[in-house]
Design brief:
- The complex is a heterodimer of chains A (about 375) and B (about 325).
- Chain A has about 375 residues and is mainly alpha-helical.
- Chain A has 2 domains: about 1-105, no CATH class; about 145-205 and about 240-375, MetI-like (MetI-like fold).
- Chain A is built from 17 helices and no strands.
- Chain A has helices at about 1-10, 15-40, 45-65, 70-90, 95-125, 135-145, 145-175, 185-190, 200-210, 220-230, 240-265, 270-280, 285-295, 300-315, 315-325, 330-340, 345-375.
- In chain A, helix 12 packs antiparallel against helix 13 (about 285-295) and helix 14 runs antiparallel to helix 17.
- The two termini of chain A are about 45 Å apart.
- Chain B is mainly alpha-helical.
- Chain B has 13 helices and 2 strands.
- Chain B has a two-stranded antiparallel ribbon.
- In chain B, strand 1 (about 165-170) and strand 2 form a beta hairpin.
- In chain B, helix 4 (about 95-130) runs antiparallel to helix 10 (about 235-255), helix 7 runs antiparallel to helix 10 (about 235-255) and helix 12 (about 270-280) packs across helix 13 (about 285-315).
- Chain B starts with 13 loop residues before the first helix and ends with a helix.
- Classes of the chains: A mainly alpha (about 375), B mainly alpha (about 325).
- At the A-B interface, helix 1, helix 2, helix 5, helix 7 and helix 8 of A face helix 1, helix 2, helix 4, helix 5 and helix 6 of B.
Chain lengths: ~375, ~325
């Protein structure tokens, strides 16, 4: 059913599909909200409505996915359980129904799209590409290949350099232009790379790093500058380990705008009284920055650093479109895809697990902050 | 000097900033020359950063306007010696059916993939913020942690699910999206991948709504449905708008998800451009112009909603 709806929509012209799908989506959400609104009301009519929703909604959902018998069975079980739980809930009638109604769409998608694949990958990391259990062989393979060690080293370089440099540059820039004339234009200039796709960025940077042998006219800006100063052109992306840093520069170029926009907003939120008091105490601009501004924007700094760290661990587009032809530029995220495309699922999954382990400290740190925040409320 | 503070930033004390700085300036005449000096150095430094950040894009813009045979023969800066620009590349790109089609595809993919995760995430964020239930903290942290699942890790299992469906004990539970519309897979994939971050940011904002407002509505007899529609949604417009821009930029510029889920006729502009970069040859000279056309839509969106972007992200991120 759902399939034939999407099939019907799919045959329309692309731009006609958008409003139809959006309208259908709004109708579904509207219905959901209506049921949630009337769920806790008292009276026989509403009780019947609650039973109907508890049983009919799972039925309709499963029917839409295309299996009739399962729909009937699951709906009876799920709906019955839901209704009973609701009936006996201490929080009042309809409480469970409401909770499920608000959370179910997101949770369903997360389970299907993130949790189930993650578990599958975890299992695959211990299987060979033919599905035989091999223990830690895939991990042993990763650490036994010199190429893979370079990949891991590069990934760690990315995740250390990109967040620190782009946050520092973004923060400095945000402080410099704060309350200056033309602040908006300054902001837009540095934010612009955020609006450019990594594919676009790799095209842009080709005209910076481009190389031709000496004697020819250069099309890459960096080599032209070298030539202007009387040097001979260098094939930048062939230079190990310089080439990894040159690719890192591209991501820094993109992410600085993000850091700048968020931190600039945070700086404007630092209470002026504090800055003023520090000023009266005779501190200089640098002392005020370190002792007043930075503590005032600590929360934003953590969010920015976290977001950029995760982004640089996941980076693959830049390496894919710029670096594949050059030596020793690999990163885990890109090697994973290459391995998966060569049907080496086990090794690819092992890399994924490794990537996951690298991010874990960041998550734990943030989870603690969130927990403290929520307990404060 | 103080005129550029956005007056609409919802920060306590923002209104006092203006007066306070002026006072500090007037009262500190001895320090004044020093302040000026540092700020002149700062202006210089920020000018340098701005120029460094803009040059690559500017170079591409000039390149996109150069004649086909000039593009890789010499650098774009040669233009300043010999003025030779043309809009021919843009005309060729706009006449190229692959590129125009993928431009339309990008729009068709991006709009639903921006709206759907926002609405679904707002519902969940509301439940996390205003419906008490056991384990709410734990579940919320778990959802936040999902942000770091590398998308690469989920692509293959998800693709298998979408194409083969789900069979349990010989019964088909879900028959897959094979042949079910061009964009269905990519819409759903983008929606899923956006959820953890969206729930996290929107929750921060929705939880900030004063509880008196929610209580008052409850006393007046509003249920969760009405509170969500009439109170929470209108109050979170800045956060929603800011995340919408974020998600729009992200989906529009995405290559990874497109490589797997938007195949063939559905391929968006990033994918088509990436394919063009792969083949050095007849069409490579179209890349700069193509990249610029792909850039126009995100830039328009950013300029149009810029104000919301700053405000919304601020509210979502400055807590800590």
């Amino acid at each position: 059913m759902l399939k034939s709806f999407f099939d019907w929509v799919g045959n329309l012209p692309p731009l006609a599909q958008v409003p139809i799908v959006l309208a259908a989506f709004v109708v579904v959400v509207g219905l959901l909200l209506f049921f949630l609104e009337v769920a806790p009301r008292r009276g026989r009519v509403y009780s019947i409505l609650r039973i109907a929703v508890s049983i009919l909604v799972p039925a309709v959902v499963l029917f839409l996915f295309g299996s009739v018998w399962w729909a009937i069975a699951v709906a009876a079980v799920l709906g019955g359980a839901l209704f009973l739980l609701d009936y006996r809930s201490k929080e009042g009638k309809g409480y469970v129904l409401q909770l499920v109604g608000f959370l179910a769409p997101a949770m369903f998608l997360l389970v299907v799209g993130l949790i189930y694949p993650t578990i599958q990958t975890l299992i695959q990391a211990f299987l060979s590409s033919r599905g035989r259990f091999v223990g830690f062989d895939n991990f042993a393979w990763i650490f036994s290949q010199p190429d893979n060690l370079v990949t891991i080293r590069n990934t760690i370089l990315w995740v250390l350099v990109v967040p620190t440099v782009s946050t520092a540059a973004g923060l400095a820039y945000a402080v410099f232009i704060d309350r200056s004339r033309g602040e908006k234009i300054f902001k837009i200039l540095v934010f612009m790379p955020m609006a450019i796709s990594f594919v676009g960025a790799s095209i842009i940077w080709r005209f910076v790093y481009g190389y031709r042998e000496a004697g020819n006219s250069q099309y890459g800006l960096m080599n032209q500058i070298v030539v202007w100063f009387g040097g001979s052109p260098i094939n930048w992306l062939q230079q190990v380990p310089l080439n990894t840093f040159l690719l890192i520069v591209v991501l820094i170029w993109v992410q600085t705008g993000f850091a700048m926009v968020v931190l600039s907003a945070a700086i404007k939120g630092v209470p002026t009284e504090q800055v003023e008091a520090a000023q009266l105490d005779g501190t200089n601009a640098w002392q005020r920055f370190v002792n007043v501004t930075v503590p005032g924007i600590r929360g934003s700094l953590v969010v920015v650093l976290t977001t950029i760290s995760i982004a640089s661990l996941k980076v693959f587009d830049i390496v894919r479109t710029m670096g594949t032809a050059y030596p020793d530029t690999g990163v885990i995220a890109n090697d994973m895809i290459t391995l998966a495309q060569n049907f080496e699922t086990g090794r690819s999954a092992a890399f994924a697990v490794l990537l996951f382990l690298l991010v874990l400290p960041i998550v734990i740190y943030n989870a603690r902050i969130i927990k403290n925040q929520r307990e404060l409320r | 000097m103080t005129s550029t503070i956005p007056a609409d930033l919802p920060i306590p004390g923002a209104t006092t900033t203006r007066g306070a700085v002026e006072r500090a300036d007037v009262g500190n005449i001895t320090r004044r020359s020093k302040r000026r000096l540092t700020s002149r150095g700062a202006t210089f430094a920020s000018l340098i950063i701005a120029v460094l950040w803009t040059i690559p894009t500017f170079g591409l813009f000039i390149t996109s306007l150069r004649p086909q045979d000039q593009i890789t023969r010499s650098g774009w800066w040669e233009v300043f010696g010999k003025w030779d620009l043309t809009t021919e590349n843009y005309q060729t790109v706009l006449a190229n059916e692959d590129l125009t089609r993928s431009f339309v595809n990008s729009i068709a993919i991006t709009l639903p993939a921006t709206v759907a995760p926002l609405v679904i995430a707002a519902l969940a964020a509301y439940a996390f913020a205003w419906i008490d239930f056991k384990g709410t903290n734990l579940l919320f942290i778990f959802v936040f942690a999902l942000q770091i699942v590398p998308i690469q890790m989920t692509l293959v299992p998800l693709l298998t699910l979408f194409s083969r469906g789900l069979n349990v004990g010989g019964e088909t539970l879900f028959s897959g999206f094979q042949g079910a519309g061009l964009y269905t897979q990519v819409w759903i994939a983008h929606t899923i991948f956006a959820l953890p971050l969206a729930i996290f940011l929107l929750h921060n904002f929705i939880a900030e709504i004063p509880s008196e407002v929610i209580e008052a509505a409850r006393v007046d007899g509003a249920g969760h449905g009405q509170i969500f529609l009439r109170i929470v949604l209108p109050l979170t417009v800045p956060a929603i708008a800011s995340f919408a821009i974020f998600q729009f930029l992200w989906v529009w510029n995405d290559l990874l998800v497109a490589l797997i889920f938007a195949t063939g006729d559905a391929s968006p502009i990033t994918r088509t451009l990436a394919e063009l970069t792969g083949q050095f040859g007849r069409t490579a000279y179209l890349l700069p112009a193509g990249a610029f056309i792909a850039m126009i839509v995100p830039l328009i969106v950013f300029f149009a909603l810029q104000r919301y972007f700053v405000r919304g992200l601020l509210a979502g991120s400055t807590k800590g």
